[in-house]
């Protein structure tokens, strides 16, 4: 496929194999309740909980926190690693440490488990590094031989689908291969192809041939069903990559039931997935979007304003904050990225911003803090990561400086929302309440956090249309005395 190609409409492509079965998710949940198998999700940024509710996420992978996270009847636990913001050496170290702790805790607790490496639905992140490290460490510490890893980047809530082994984004009413979007030009995790077997070959620098990937096609799922997918999974050996085509939750639910059947037969798998698969494999049912009351703090001073902090620099995010600023009289504070990257001007710039934020929020003014929109990049991946980390750490300082509790807190961008959660709000253990809108999760902070029992809206950088931030803001404001 080349640029300029006319792609099929979203509707036509998704009507191709139209099926649904509401009972599949219940069957998955019953299976997990019976077997007590758990899925531990290593999430490389905090947006991976954007499809689930009533589960917990921990941001500290010490053994005591993992034990706490696995101590209830739930079939899934998220561990926030934030590795997408780190270099490969630190990413490897984090994954190895987590696996060692998981092995020790699950052995003590007598828990059977599988590990999911949750990453980006637009194919960014440390692949194949994280999968290879998980495989290696599981073999070293638990003598587990991984048969294969399922690659499932489908994320339906944000219109990301895998058809004919190619990963697409819905843009307007058209499907566009993800390599033709801005996400493929990521300064750290860029790529050239949306064809997943070829993407694997590209990401492994040719060490894994595209033809070696096993394929679970839509035809396998819709005509062969669970048994056909099960047979494909049984054929996997030596950590083979397994491409999963999917355009709906029906597809993922069939795959999930086949995976559980294969696990019962003694196979071991890893998973490199976006958010939708976790909802399926954990048997999590649908629930309505959260009401305004559920995403606004009940114990914040009613005279305090809300707070939105934005670090993401994607075009989508820029459009969203412009729409918000055009529609509502929100206080706007722009942080100059050139100034915070310069050691001589960083302190003065941050002092200015922190003082303004505290004054605004305590004066009942909803406040938007955003980084300057001109993207600053370097010539190599390591330098670009350092720039991202410096920007994110500056936003964390703004959160840490808050003396008053905002009425609501929203962070926009994967790295931003992770650092705000762990370093700014000091969250260790949070409950996922649900979603504010499609693909936008809301955490409830724990008692250890800077602001305890506080809803925290985590807005991914690559999710939503231009009105999405304004939509959430609108919902919140309308609920307060029935007006904006």
Description:
- This protein has 2 domains: about 10-280, Putative sugar-binding, N-terminal domain (Rossmann fold), CATH 3.40.50; about 290-480, 3-Layer(aba) Sandwich (Molybdenum Cofactor Biosythetic Enzyme, Chain A).
- The protein is about 40% helix and about 20% strand.
- It is built from 15 helices and 18 strands.
- It has helices at about 10-15, 25-35, 65-70, 90-110, 130-140, 195-205, 220-235, 250-265, 275-280, 315-325, 335-340, 345-360, 380-400, 415-425, 470-480, and strands spanning about 40-45, 55-60, 75-80, 115-120, 150, 160-165, 165-170, 175, 215, 240-245, 270-275, 305-310, 330-335, 365-370, 410, 430-435, 440-445, 455-460.
- The longest helix has 22 residues, at about 90-110.
- The protein starts with 9 loop residues before the first helix and ends in a 5-residue tail after the last helix.
- The mean pLDDT is about 90.
- Pfam families: NBD_C, SBD_N.
- Keywords: ATP-binding, Carbohydrate metabolism, Kinase, Nucleotide-binding, Transferase.
- It comes from Peribacillus muralis.
- Belongs to the four-carbon acid sugar kinase family.
Task: Itemize the secondary structure elements and their pairings.
Layout lengths: L9 H5 L8 H13 L2 E6 L11 E4 L4 H7 L6 E5 L7 H22 L3 E6 L10 H14 L5 E5 L7 E4 L2 E6 L2 E4 L18 H8 L10 E3 L1 H17 L5 E5 L4 H16 L4 E5 L1 H7 L25 E4 L4 H13 L3 E5 L1 H5 L1 H20 L4 E5 L9 H20 L8 E4 L1 H11 L4 E9 L2 E5 L10 E5 L8 H12 L5
Family: Belongs to the four-carbon acid sugar kinase family.
GO molecular function, one term: kinase activity
Protein name: Hydroxyacid dehydrogenase
């Amino acid at each position: 496929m080349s640029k300029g190609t006319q792609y099929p409409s979203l509707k036509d492509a998704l009507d191709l194999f139209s099926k649904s079965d509401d009972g599949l998710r219940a069957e998955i949940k019953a299976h997990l309740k019976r077997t007590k198998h758990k899925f531990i999700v290593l999430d490389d940024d905090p947006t991976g909980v954007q499809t689930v509710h009533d589960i917990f996420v921990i941001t500290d992978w010490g053994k005591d926190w993992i034990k706490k996270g696995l101590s209830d009847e739930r079939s899934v636990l998220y561990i926030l690693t934030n590795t997408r913001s780190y270099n490969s050496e630190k990413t490897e170290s984090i994954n190895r440490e987590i696996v060692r702790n998981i092995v020790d805790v699950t052995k003590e607790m007598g828990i059977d488990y599988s590990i999911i490496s949750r990453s980006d639905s637009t194919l960014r992140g440390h692949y194949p590094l994280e999968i290879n490290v998980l495989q290696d460490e599981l073999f070293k510490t638990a003598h587990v031989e991984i048969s294969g890893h399922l690659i499932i980047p489908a994320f339906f809530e944000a219109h990301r689908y895998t058809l004919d082994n190619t990963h697409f984004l819905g843009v307007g009413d058209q499907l566009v291969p993800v390599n033709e979007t801005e996400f493929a030009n990521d300064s750290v995790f860029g790529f050239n192809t949306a064809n997943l077997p070829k993407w694997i070959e590209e990401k492994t620098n040719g060490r894994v041939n595209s033809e070696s990937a096993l394929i679970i096609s839509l035809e396998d799922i819709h005509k062969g069903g669970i048994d056909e997918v099960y047979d494909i999974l049984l054929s996997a050996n030596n950590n083979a990559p397994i491409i999963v085509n999917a355009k709906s939750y029906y597809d993922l639910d069939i795959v999930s039931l086949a995976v559980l059947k294969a696990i019962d037969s003694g196979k071991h798998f890893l998973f490199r997935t976006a958010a939708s698969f976790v909802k399926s494999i954990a048997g999590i049912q649908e629930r309505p979007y959260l009401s305004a009351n559920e995403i606004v703090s009940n114990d914040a001073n009613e005279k305090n304003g809300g707070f939105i902090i934005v670090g993401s620099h994607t075009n989508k995010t820029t459009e969203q904050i412009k729409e918000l600023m055009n529609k509502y009289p929100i206080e706007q504070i722009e942080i100059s990225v050139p100034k915070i990257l310069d050691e001589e001007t960083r302190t003065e710039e941050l002092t200015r911003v922190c003082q303004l934020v505290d004054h605004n929020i305590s004066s009942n003014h909803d406040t938007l803090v955003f980084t300057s929109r001109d993207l600053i990049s370097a010539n190599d991946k390591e330098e670009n990561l350092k720039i991202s980390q410096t920007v994110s750490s500056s936003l964390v300082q703004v959160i840490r400086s808050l003396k008053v509790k905002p009425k609501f807190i929203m962070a926009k961008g994967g790295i931003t929302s992770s650092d705000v959660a762990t370093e700014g709000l000091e969250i260790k253990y949070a409950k996922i309440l649900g979603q504010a809108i499609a693909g936008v999760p809301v955490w409830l902070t724990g008692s250890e956090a800077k602001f305890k029992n506080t809803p925290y809206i985590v807005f991914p950088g690559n999710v939503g249309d231009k009105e999405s931030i304004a939509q959430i803001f609108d919902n919140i404001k309308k609920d307060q005395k029935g007006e904006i």
